[in-house]
Specification:
The chain is mainly beta and about 80 residues long. The chain has one domain. It contains one helix and four strands. Strand 2 and strand 3 form a beta hairpin. The longest helix has 11 residues.
């Protein structure tokens, strides 16, 4: 699934619906960003609640993945 970002919008939506597993949602820059796992790939879906539209669907930004976790991995767990 290396070419996910190059897929047409409708194909991305179809792939998420048919093959994706919803993992979590965060709020980021005014969007509700849903994280999905699709065939070994993490995918973000950016939904704007005011316009009620999906703005973009893309491979997840790896620098943002930690925001989806309810566990602080940097905190000392002693």
């Amino acid at each position: 699934m290396e070419n996910f970002d190059a897929m047409p919008y409708h194909e991305k939506v179809f792939t998420i619906i048919r093959k994706g597993t919803f993992l979590n949602t965060i709020k980021h820059l005014g969007y509700n960003v849903d994280l999905y796992h699709v065939e070994g790939l993490y995918v973000e879906l950016f939904y704007h609640p005011v316009t009620a539209k999906v703005n973009k669907i893309q491979k997840a930004d790896e620098t943002r993945l930690h925001l989806y976790s309810p566990i602080n991995l940097n905190e000392d767990q002693t």
